[in-house]
Amino acid sequence: MESGTQGIQAIIKKASDLEYKIQRRTLFKEDFINYVQYEINLLELIQRRRAHIGYSFKKDEIENSIVHRVQGVFRRASAKWKDDVQLWLSYVVFCKKWATKAQLSKVFSAMLAIHSNKPALWIMAAKWEMEDRLSSESARQLFLRALRFHPECPKLYQEYFRMELMHAEKLRKEKQEFETAKMDVENLEYSEEILKGELARIIYKNSVSIIKGAEFHVSLLSIAQLFDFAKDLQREIYDDLQALHTDDPLTWDYVARRELEMESQPGDEPPTTKQAKVAEATRREERCCAVYEEAVKTLPTEAMWKCYLNFCMERFTKKTNSQLLREKRLERTMVAFRKAHELRLLPEVQYKQWSELLLQHNLFKEALEVAGAGTELFQDSVMMWQVKLQVLIASESPDVAMVFEEAFVRLKPQICLPLWISWAEWSEGAKSQEDTEAIFKKAVLAVMGADSVTLKDKYLDWAYRSSGYKKARAVFKSLQESRPFSVDFFRKMIQFEKEQESCKMANLREYYERALREFGSVDSDLWMDYIKEELDHPLGRPENCGQIYWRAMKMLQGEAAELFVAKHAMHQAGHL
């Protein structure tokens, strides 16, 4: 009993301390947050205890007083820090769990009065009214108010449109349930127009007159297609899309892909045998391609060809056990690539796709032609030069080194890092160590700034991998004044040293000291590992640790210093 009394006293003391902080003249947001969090934790604890022992005595009196208190704190905090959206959202989350629906409705109203410029908050409030309060009228009013503030916001129109379709669907289900129960529905107001989605249709018509473009139009059609009863509305939106946006690739793309979902003959049974399924997939894809073929004639643009080629690639990469279907897909894709190339309407990224596709099928000559055409058209593109070199390497061409040299002449030095890395990696497998090192040395001189960090790490890795520790140390020494570096550059050398049979403490100290010159003000782990090394290495000097600690405290800045102190204390506690 005594421990229970002590527990209650501790809770009262903690709550009083937190309450005192939010009554002070100078208020801090963190104090409010801490107080609220404490009260919420208390509520949840009480709830769990009640559930555990099945005890509901004075439930309203105890829980409601805490909820009322927290709401008061939230009201004060949201009045003082009106602009803090996260604070308002925390208030909303609390009310959703603990308050009444009427109280939450008021919180949404207060939040929207201040944050009327944020469409997402209007949508959140309207969805809650619709889904939790089951009030489509309140949701509708919120959407209408939101649109007065944001008359050109696509997301608001989309969600309002969805809400009206959901409302119509709900009414249809209600009517059906009444009819099934043979209840009189004549006295209930079920307008045939509303049941058919007329309110959603009005939103659709208004919104597309304000927000132009096929993308928005298609988004409304995608929402309408989620509702089976709205077939007439779907047809109207689809017809309007074709009439209003024939000059937009997205329209053609949508119309073509729609053929994949449509049965060959309305009312036909779905195919059951593997052969019938393959035949059906072939027919559907051919219908899609017929639309795309018409599209690229009507709208001969790079964007339209990109849609067509993306479709071809998607179908080609789709798994099938049918060799015939796979071959048809490959042939169709190759023909489409060729046509777009001949019309000079093939985007850069698709030259890459085309070349890689040819390479997959060991068509080296054709892949090289495509990659060559890509580098001629996009001479400043690192990606296209990489594709060309990928083909040359795969086909074991004698021209690889020459084309690398040519690429560096054509491209700006600041974008060449991927090519230098590719060259070094290729050379490692195909050339001598001297040749590879010559490439790394050239690269280090050519690549400047942040990009050079990656290169130096790769050079050091290569040296150790190809020739062992002695070579890696020589490379480290040659680069150790060539800033900038990564911490990894030094950590690699520390690791290489540790892998040696005669791991020298003097060398480890050298690497740590060199690393700390670069990163001593920000990297607490480096200092900590240095201390551990002096403690754990057979030739370490534990007496140095105090001096290293004070140097760290002088050099580390802000949070890094706090982190170091905490880690050091934990390490010491572990050694006690």
Automatic annotation (TrEMBL):
Keyword Transferase among UniProt keywords: no
Keyword Nucleus: yes
Keywords: Nucleus, Repeat, rRNA processing
Domain (U3 small nucleolar RNA-associated protein 6 N-terminal) ranges: 8-69
SMART domains noted in UniProt: HAT
Predominant place of localization: nucleus
Transmembrane residue ranges: none
Subcellular location: Nucleus, Nucleolus
SUPFAM superfamilies per UniProt: TPR-like (SSF48452)
GO cellular component, one term: nucleolus
One annotated GO biological process: maturation of SSU-rRNA from tricistronic rRNA transcript (SSU-rRNA, 5.8S rRNA, LSU-rRNA)
Family statement: Belongs to the UTP6 family.
UniProt subunit comment: Part of the small subunit (SSU) processome, composed of more than 70 proteins and the RNA chaperone small nucleolar RNA (snoRNA) U3.
Protein task: Part of the small subunit (SSU) processome, first precursor of the small eukaryotic ribosomal subunit. During the assembly of the SSU processome in the nucleolus, many ribosome biogenesis factors, an RNA chaperone and ribosomal proteins associate with the nascent pre-rRNA and work in concert to generate RNA folding, modifications, rearrangements and cleavage as well as targeted degradation of pre-ribosomal RNA by the RNA exosome. Involved in nucleolar processing of pre-18S ribosomal RNA.
Protein name per Swiss-Prot or TrEMBL: U3 small nucleolar RNA-associated protein 6 homolog
Native source species: Sus scrofa
Underlying gene: UTP6
